[in-house]
């Protein structure tokens, strides 16, 4: 059944901004993070310690962490792909990281310059060292439902690659519909495949992009299976520069509207979120894609 409470894993500052062509000024990123924390969100994925040429928008990760004034009770996880990224994250005093794997060979090559096996060889020392340093480690798995180059991805393949992230020592697995093609039946099927492999919903999160308008429906399917951590992006910003056809993430405001309607607790203040996304839209020079932001700010 439905969870009583959902943890919103806000990815706007990372997934939301990584695809923006024009570099967003550091002060704007810092204010964005502060406003999101002020709106009651408690997990803010802040940035990525990836190669600065691969994602120029997030090349300022160390400066961002240096300028961040952390709020009590808020976690600021960052993406880390390899040992160099972990070194940089440790230098910046980061407490939580996420590694990010691909379920398919095509996307592993494009996003990480690796094969599926090589990505695990890259992550293994990262996760081991991060855990030894007392960090929390999340694992992302991309292309869980469909892949730009390979088409539909078999559920057994996704279950098998995802299991390897737990074997490495990840505490949570976020199932990514990187290009936003999934439909709710597929979501149920994948969650059931994990359950059959001994991985329960408490260890899972869902990460939907809204390219085909299915993100909220897919989220509801996951909630009905009992998943209680949902990734979303304020204003529906986002997309992966290496995924070919990804648009924005599920909008945090759209998620909050649905959770409120279902009576599921989440701790966020919708008005403050909408105000933040309207402010951010002004900075980016285009309106928010979120229907709830549009409805409440019209
Ligand atoms: P590579 O070119 O194979 O790197 O990239 P390399 O290991 O061969 O190293 C080349 C040079 O880069 C070396 O420098 C390294 O030190 C340097 P040199 O010795 O030549 O002077 N280097 C670094 N510098 C700074 N920070 C680092 C770093 N690593 C190496 N971390 C690499 C491999 C993994 C680095 C690259 O492919 C990369 O950075 N990829 C990241 C791509 C990315 O960020 N994609 C978006 C996030 S994933 C996503 O959005 C999906 C998600 O939202 C879920 C979903 O929607 O499905 C999470
Ligand atoms: Mg994503």
UniProtKB/TrEMBL annotation:
Under InterPro entries, the record lists: Aldolase_TIM, HMGL, PYR_CT
Q: Which GO terms describe its molecular function?
A: hydroxymethylglutaryl-CoA lyase activity; metal ion binding
Report the domain of life of the source organism.
Bacteria
User: Mind listing the UniProt keywords for this protein, alphabetically?
Assistant: Lyase, Metal-binding
Q: Where is the Pyruvate carboxyltransferase domain?
A: 6-274
Could you mention a single GO BP entry for this protein?
A: L-leucine catabolic process
What the entry lists under NCBIfam families is as follows: PRK05692.1
**Entry protein name:** Hydroxymethylglutaryl-CoA lyase
Which species is this UniProt entry from? Amycolatopsis antarctica
